[in-house]
Write a structure and sequence with these properties.
Oligomer: single chain
Structural class: alpha+beta
Number of helices: 11
Largest sheet: 7 strands, mixed
Strand content: 15-25%
Length: about 350
């Protein structure tokens, strides 16, 4: 089915508020999820709500919890999400880190114990709006592993996303790279399974370590695994996400001594830079524009499946298209939403009317 973005937003607000969030928190979470759907990252959109409601019921996610400042030593800030909605606590931590970077020219922000922070690109967009460059490294704890190590046959890591954000110039839009260090995100496998689709060849392993394109192996017991992107290179970056986001924030890594209670807890290290403190801005913009033109003017290869784009362009195109034509929601995901709504007192009739 195709749902208008405004209607989808109303549906999310209804469910999130019924699950116990204040109007302000519900707005933050719904805005974030809708933005993920609009940009084409359905893995981090409305389909996450059933998981969030289960976590609330199991007291693994605590609504109406603000971020807690643990330490502020000038350009180094440490925050604890206190197991609140990740979309809220990460946004609040970013706001304070942006203020620090604007004051000091550089900020290092550590966030630990945030429930699923969602699409990391949202926080890159926050820094872009402030004219700042940002680098984000994220790991996942409290969850069973779903990603194999390079040459491994079982799951030992999670999807450990990274995000790099560079503000726009007068001639070119911002560059925003936001990606998992696994070949696909776990949520994309869920979307594929719910839609009855297969995953690309070479993406997954079954529980015996054999190649498969059935996304259902990630949601069965024993579970399969997603392979790291870029072979040993992706594994190396994923491992550093554990070292940076897991160790330096104090939130912990996926190693088996730490809790695995079925939640999705994120830790994030963010490095933020004010480019005006480093180089002349006219020169910077000229270099960015010249490099952008140089890259995009390359002739297409014979096996190209689309035109040449910089990071962030697919999301802009998806947003323009989905604002106009609506957002697809597969029947299985819609039924999961109806069931989730029922669990917090929102009837299927109500949600169908909002659709």
């Amino acid at each position: 089915m195709i749902i208008n973005s405004q209607n989808l937003h109303r549906i999310m607000l209804k469910i999130i508020t019924a699950a116990g969030s204040s109007a302000e928190e519900a707005q933050i979470v719904a805005d974030h999820l809708l933005r993920a759907n609009l940009t084409g990252h359905d893995s981090h959109g409305i389909g996450m709500l059933p998981t969030y409601l289960r976590s609330i019921a199991e007291k693994l996610l605590i609504p109406n919890t603000p971020v807690k400042a643990v330490s502020d030593s000038g350009s180094i800030l440490i925050f604890d999400g206190q197991f609140g909605y990740g979309q809220r606590v990460a946004r609040e931590a970013m706001e304070q880190a942006i203020s620090s970077c604007q004051k000091n020219g550089l900020a290092l922000m550590a966030l630990r114990n945030a429930h699923h922070i969602g699409r990391v690109g949202s926080y890159g967009e926050q820094s872009i709006a402030a004219g700042l460059i940002s680098l984000h490294f994220v790991n996942v704890t409290h969850h069973t592993p779903v990603v194999s190590v390079y040459n491994g046959a079982d799951a030992r890591l999670l999807t450990n996303p990274i995000c790099f954000a560079m503000p726009k110039t007068e001639k070119n839009p911002a560059v925003l790279l936001d990606m998992a260090t696994s070949k696909i995100a776990l949520g994309k496998a869920r979307v594929a399974m719910n839609s009855g689709k297969s995953t690309p060849e070479g993406t997954l392993l079954d529980s015996q370590g054999n190649p498969t394109n059935d996304p259902g192996v990630l949601f069965s017991d024993p579970t399969g695994a997603i392979k790291p992107f870029g072979e040993y290179k992706g594994f190396g970056i994923a491992f550093f996400c554990e070292l940076l986001a897991g160790v330096l924030t104090g939130g912990g890594t996926i190693q088996p001594e730490n809790p695995r209670d079925g939640s999705i807890i994120n830790n994030m290290i963010t490095i933020m830079i004010d480019p005006q403190r480093l180089v002349d801005q006219d020169w910077l913009h000229h270099e960015v524009d010249a490099l952008t033109s140089y890259a995009l003017e390359s002739p297409q290869s014979s096996d190209a499946d689309s035109d040449i784009m910089l990071a962030g362009e697919p999301e802009r195109r998806n947003t323009a298209r989905r604002l106009k034509s609506g957002i697809p929601v597969d029947p299985n995901t819609w039924q999961e939403l109806l069931d989730a709504g029922t669990s917090v007192g929102v009837t299927p009739e109500t949600l169908n009317q909002l659709r």
